[in-house]
Amino acid sequence: MSQTLEQFQAYQTRLEQYDQAIALLYWDLQTAAPKDSIEAKLSAVGYFSTESFRLSTADEYGSLLKKLSAPEEYDQLSPAMQLTIRRNLRDFERFQRIPEAFYTEYVTEKARSEKAWEAAKEASDFSVFAPHLDKVISMTKEYVHYMEPDQDVYEFLVGLFEDGMDTETIDRIFAELKEGLLPLLAKIEAAPKPDLSALQQTFDPDAQKKVQELLLSYIGFSFDCGAVAESMHPFTTTLCPGDVRVTNHYYADNPISSMFSAIHEGGHAIFEQNVDKDFWHTAAAQINMMGLHESQSRFYENILGRNPHFWTPIYEKMSELLPEFKTIPFDTFVKAINDVHPSMIRTEADEVTYGLHIILRYEIEKAIFRDNVKTDDLPALWNQKMQELLGITPANDAEGILQDMHWSDGSFGYFPSYLLGSIYDGMYLEAIQKDLGDLDTILENGRILDITHWLKEKIHRFGSMYNSKEVIQRVCGKEISAQPLLRYFEEKYSKVYEF
Amino acid sequence: MSQTLEQFQAYQTRLEQYDQAIALLYWDLQTAAPKDSIEAKLSAVGYFSTESFRLSTADEYGSLLKKLSAPEEYDQLSPAMQLTIRRNLRDFERFQRIPEAFYTEYVTEKARSEKAWEAAKEASDFSVFAPHLDKVISMTKEYVHYMEPDQDVYEFLVGLFEDGMDTETIDRIFAELKEGLLPLLAKIEAAPKPDLSALQQTFDPDAQKKVQELLLSYIGFSFDCGAVAESMHPFTTTLCPGDVRVTNHYYADNPISSMFSAIHEGGHAIFEQNVDKDFWHTAAAQINMMGLHESQSRFYENILGRNPHFWTPIYEKMSELLPEFKTIPFDTFVKAINDVHPSMIRTEADEVTYGLHIILRYEIEKAIFRDNVKTDDLPALWNQKMQELLGITPANDAEGILQDMHWSDGSFGYFPSYLLGSIYDGMYLEAIQKDLGDLDTILENGRILDITHWLKEKIHRFGSMYNSKEVIQRVCGKEISAQPLLRYFEEKYSKVYEF
């Protein structure tokens, strides 16, 4: 190993220790920290974040990255280390181009804007948030201009959350999807509604926790390199090599919520857990593609978890842990987990209407960054698009444009990745059935770990070595298309709703 | 505020961030970390410990401490900041006197010795541990000689764990206690044994957790600045200002274990939680007196928790959470929590024989450091003293001299503090009854928070502003004596065992 590489790895190790401390502090803040300690913990997060930023923008670091980019060094590196050098040098150079004063002001304004969004949502009043949103939009444009002066801002933002993806592709596949989803939703809407009253019971949260454990183990989450805790909102986080955790939230009146959160976060976690150990301490293990990540969580949650056959092998075991399920007919449960209807809130939407929620946000983001629509006009645009896509109109801003936090902290370009994930899922499903046979049969036979194994071999173990487009090409041998997802929807819901 | 003080406080804040990260990593290792992450977490602990050590031994730090010790600065400081400067300068200067090579070797040898102790205990073979113990003893002597060349080694070690305490005082009060305990134990031994078979049931660990929550809240533990988790062995830790946590371990066949661990660790935690906020970020909030600390946990556990009247107001509530208790007569429960009999293992001993376990260790530590007894002769000495003090002889080294880890990592001088804690408790009890009236009545009336309030006002809020001798003098107005504890034992056990 070259001396430069050795120095670089020692430097990276220091950076990783700070990142580990920050991740653990955040985890603790979300899952355990008592209220009187929040200030001290945030102060520690601030300290370690500053140290980490200082280290990753230091001249010493840049000089190591540049030395390792020179062919005589670079060509000797493993592919994962090459990715690390490429990605980190790119980020280093981008940061070098941002004036420090601007960066500080941007970070501060985003924090202010988050607070304003909270207050606006609470008051259901967009005007409280508007001036901050306006400023975050213009500063985000400036931020991108500093980093990549020649790139279209929105194109850059989309690529930030989904490496290698572009708006031309998204335009094409979202249009395909929209064209298919609207008539499908009309058919579902016209069908008779299922009777789900058997689910109106109380379900012990402690028992729900045990069901979660059962589900996580069943789909292949490993407790040797993972753990579970409770938090306000479910999430997945990697604390350090060998430690990928999920959280959940348990509602006594809605066990389906925690069950599907368990499967969803479990999907994210299994992806991270399955990354090849050889990639630890390289950029390959830091999966920075949100669409690819979401494709794993959504595959487990929707394609597998909402398939009736997923439950056949474990429904009885689950009923032992949550005895209320003994009074819920299997068919009613299947109807409940596949209940499709237009609704206001994205995070509560079913898998079919979810896509329309995302298309709405994608179209508005393009309107913001490409058509320069005025911030004050956004609520009306939101409501108009809700009517067009879902046939409903929010009663107020809280259940309309203020529902998501993403725009308050400048995460423009993030939304499309949720739907990209589902679109990739349609394609994986085709490939899996070609390789392993009929999905229903696999699930019916309780062989779900065969699928986890397939995902591991084809996708998980590579981490972020390949971007999503490359993954799709490698795994499915074809271009990204929304048709497989639409076919899956058609086939499934024509059965569920008998049309 | 002087510029030097400002610099010092900024420096301290950095140190505190490292300490917080280390504490949180340890917490996580004990309570949640999956096995595959242990290496990465220990590596982070190592990194932050090294950084913290580097900062606290840096010339810059020493120079700030010295500047603030000069009268023109020192006289302007708050008493808590004066304590901080005194204590940290003392430690800084002690460390300055240790050759770096020796220190590294000492730390390494202690780690080796810990491993050897584990193996020896597993094999129940003292000879595996003996050479390491021998080396740790001689290196500990050397270590103390470097730091305080003029002090008696054992005197120094005792003071390290209980600031201001000395072996002359301990000799006196331990002798008093021994003189009283031996005849008391003989009387208890002669009395008929209680029938505790009603406790042979299975108790749901989840329900035990709920009982723990009840007990912690009942005695005054605050969940606003505290939290709870499960670990192999119960412990208390302060992660940062406003965050004092306790752990517990739940045995399905022994609910009394987790109940009394909850009360014991709760006592430690309440002490830390009640330290005046003005002392945060000073040495006053870092309570370095183990005897004083133990006096709080043992007061809650023994003086309060083993008093039958403690349970009267909550026995029914507890039986609702742990329904098995409905079949256990209150009187049987009281007998079970006050079951006194000689046993081999210190950590499982009752409050009466516990003292004899400590006296044994104290006498052996003096034999090691004052009489230079050969390491190879220690097991025989141990067994002989067990026979003298408790009338029983270990069947092997594992249940004899190898049972505690303290000597393996050089924590000589720690043991006496456990018993000092109980001796202080006897004195607090007298003072409380003088101030608040009869303890049984207070407990019977469910007014236990009056006692927590008294302890807070008299002891907790000062943290380590006063050493134990000063605390006893301030609170009880007299010299330390073992007589109050002996009177408490006599009075209580003559009732329990009817002699």
Overview of this protein structure:
- The structure is a homodimer of 499-residue chains.
- The first copy, chain A, is mainly α and 499 residues long.
- The first copy, chain A, has two domains: 3-161, Methane Monooxygenase Hydroxylase, Chain G, domain 1; 164-499, Neurolysin, domain 3, CATH 1.10.1370.30.
- Chain A has helices at residues 3-31, 38-56, 59-69, 71-74, 79-96, 100-123, 126-147, 153-161, 167-190, 205-219, 255-273, 290-304, 308-311, 315-321, 330-337, 351-369, 378-390, 415-436, 439-444, 448-458, 468-476, 483-496; strands at residues 226-230, 236-240, 243-248.
- The first copy, chain A, has a three-stranded mixed sheet with strand order 1-3-2, with helices on both faces.
- In chain A, a hairpin with a 2-residue loop joins β2 and β3.
- In chain A, α1 (3-31) packs across α3, α10 (205-219) packs parallel to α11 (255-273) and α16 (351-369) packs across α18.
- The longest helix of chain A has 29 residues, at 3-31.
- Chain A binds chain B through residues 13-14, 17, 20-21, 24-25, 28, 32-41, 43-44, 47-48, 206, 222-227, 229, 239-243, and chain B through 13-14, 17, 20-21, 24-25, 28, 32-41, 43-44, 47-48, 206, 222-227, 229, 239-243.
Q: Please identify the structural class of chain A as seen in this structure.
A: mainly alpha
**Helical segment count of chain A:** 22
Number of strands of chain A: 3
* Corresponding CATH architecture of the largest domain in chain A: Orthogonal Bundle
Organism (chains A, B): Gallintestinimicrobium propionicum
GO molecular function (chains A, B): metal ion binding; metallocarboxypeptidase activity
Pfam family, one (chains A, B): Peptidase_M32
InterPro entries (chains A, B): Peptidase_M32_Taq (IPR001333)
